[in-house]
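Fig. S4 source data, part A: sequence.
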Amino acid sequence: MKKTVVSIGEILWDVFPQGKRLGGAPANFAWNMAQLGYRARLLTAVGRDELGREILQRLAPSGLDADVQQTDYPTGSVQVETDAAGVPTYRFRADVAWDHLRFTEAEAAMAASADCVCYGTLASRSTETARSLEAFLQVVARRKTACRVFDVNLRQDFYSRELIERLLGLSDVVKVNEEELEVLAGMWLPGAGDREEKCRELLARFGLRLVVLTCGGQGSLVVCSDGEISRKSSPVIEIADTVGAGDAFTAGFCAGLLGGKRLERCHELGVELASFVCTRPGAMQQIPQALREKFF
């Protein structure tokens, strides 16, 4: 039986100068997990508008098991600009459909059956969605074998120390990039030394199982509660853009983890999938068969 992976939060249109592409970190993660052979469920919301209808049409043949709530709020979008290195900056539309996610009996049943759940901070910029997400995670936590993956994903000023602390407390795997690690270190780890020490202290402070750190072209690091460490350099590739690369890394790593692979192999799979996504414009790519086969 396929393992069930749930991703919660935003789905939106990434609006580039040259046009729009479907995105949103939870949606990107779920898109990749579906292609890697998991039952990927996306809990999100769109508006009853043309952009929302277009999203539903795009998701229908994707292989995703999308649990899309429809609201009277507009469908989400974000203006994306990339610099010469392909690194993006974002400007998000306010008060959109995914700011109003509901938690009902249907969502509770979904949470109770999840083998893995992935989430970030952005969807919790609204009180309504924050409450729904935390209620969902509290149900998942009752299933001791379920993996709760917090991909921190800080955007603009849509987070607070209190929010991050609550979500860290509900997590067992945390993925951060180097900028996010510095933000967290400033909040809780003022005396910590290098990146590895900061990851170790974060892991100990919040009782985490794993901390995964990505540093773009400078490589990545995974620190485990049992003392195991994995370090990987970033391959030299021709980058189209880096939109969705972190989400692909998280998906590749989690697919390895759920597949029972050793830590170093999970890390390798995360790097490979992220590197592939970087060579194509946009976050949601069709993963080649040769790459998919590495996960089995």
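Fig. S4 source data, part B ends here. The chain has one domain: 4-295.
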